[in-house]
């Protein structure tokens, strides 16, 4: 999400999914990063900052990114405050998660620099950490392959083809960094490239195979959520994943071109809820998910073949929209004449979504 242009104290703002403190459920909140704190709000009636839910003070805050303890939520970062309070926040994309971690980290570093009396945040010196210059590759592969703490095997679809028992390049890099087998993402790519070169990992699908064939040494492994890899066939099957067959398999097989949090008006009960929207091409579908649950099973989908998408007037509440919701609204009308009303947090995001959907239709 973009930064606030009206309030110069706002460094970054946007939707994140937050785990509750008392009841450990996940709820979408609107986050606002300021110089020394992170504020979060419940997004109500089309107003981003209408209901303040909490404040996270950033002084000496420790950031863990990626944080991979939640099996079905690979895009989480963890903040630990000076009072040892822990906050778990999930983004809609890896890039968005990393942008939040970088922005929060920069704010924390500036606070620490400005306060000469403040000690540096403690560094985790876990004895299980491996030094980069003395990595035991077989130990790394065994750890990755561990049935309990290793890399989770999944089914993925690339350009219409389905692959089982594999994982993405960015999943590997996240795992190596989180388990302190690499200090940075660049180090993790170097380590993964070595595993690829020696045959412990192998490319699956077009993107990763092309990179291995054509890229320069050190760039053959892709830190990318669409580049797929698997373990070498010499490994025994471990918790193999079977490809799921369902009615929605075809519509979910398209290439993902855009993801993000938007508000959608319900069809029966005309209330507005934040949903994770995923735009796919070939075939063209716009699916939406309940972010408090997962991004595996959509709660709904819109076939974009022959649909119309248009921006709605920002002056007043447009026809068909319930409540005092206005601004950054757009409408999708399907071939079956079903009307979907959607709101983006900013005008730019609304225009970006309209443009992306039109390219698919």
Could you explain the architecture of this structure?
With 361 residues, the protein is α+β, with helices and mostly antiparallel strands. It folds into three domains: 12-114, Roll (PH-domain like), CATH 2.30.29; 132-231, Arc Repressor Mutant, subunit A (Orthogonal Bundle); 255-360, Pleckstrin-homology domain (PH domain)/Phosphotyrosine-binding domain (PTB) (PH-domain like, Roll). It has six helices and 18 strands. The chain has helices at residues 94-114, 137-145, 169-178, 185-197, 206-214, 347-360; strands spanning 12-19, 26-33, 37-44, 47-57, 62-67, 76-80, 86-90, 154-158, 161-168, 201-204, 228-231, 255-265, 272-281, 285-289, 300-303, 308-311, 329-333, 339-343. The strands form three sheets. Strands 4-3-2-1-7-6-5 form a seven-stranded antiparallel sheet. The chain has a seven-stranded antiparallel sheet with strand order 15-14-13-12-18-17-16, with helices on one face. It starts with 11 loop residues before the first strand and ends with a helix.
How would you characterize the largest beta sheet?
7 strands, antiparallel
State the separation between the terminal residues, measured CA to CA.
Answer: 25 Å
CATH topology title of the largest domain = PH-domain like
Low-pLDDT stretches are 1-5, 118-133
Summed over residues and divided by their number, the pLDDT gives a mean of: 83
Helix run count = 6
Under the CATH scheme, the architecture of the largest domain is Roll
* SSE sequence, one letter per element: EEEEEEEHHEEHHEHEEEEEEEEH
Number of strands: 18
CATH homologous superfamily heading of the largest domain:
Pleckstrin-homology domain (PH domain)/Phosphotyrosine-binding domain (PTB)
Q: Which CATH top level class of the largest domain fits?
A: Mainly Beta
Report the structural category. Answer: alpha+beta
The total tally of domains equals 3
